[in-house]
Design goal:
This protein has 122 residues and is α/β, with parallel strands linked by helices. It has one domain: Response regulator (Rossmann fold, 3-Layer(aba) Sandwich), CATH 3.40.50.2300. Helix content is 46%, strand content 20%. It has five helices and five strands. The longest helix is centred in the first third of the chain and has 13 residues, at 11-23.
Length: 122
Amino acid sequence: MKRILLVDDDEDFRLFLRETLESAGYLIETAAEGRGALRLVRRQAFDLVVTDLIMPGKEGLETIVELHGLNPGLKIIAISGGGWLGPESCLAMAQQLGAASTLVKPFTSEEILESVGSVLNS
């Protein structure tokens, strides 16, 4: 069973992602921001991290860089709904930093499941 870490400061959105991915058979852990995500990645192995980019504390771009420092082969999906640059700019930066895929919020259950499946099978 594949283990996925969800990182998002929006509790309702984390719950939506958790329920969607658990219903598809994935094992899920969650964190509200980057520092919590990094603590979890140091303690256990994950097949994939799905991270928001705009978060208080340690934001997503910095988190992606540090995650790749801890585990260069870790697959990451970056998600974002905005920020002062807009989601497309933030997500493009995330891909340059190593995110395997990106999604603009809001997205559907089908879109996240397709993205997760594609990244995990690549």
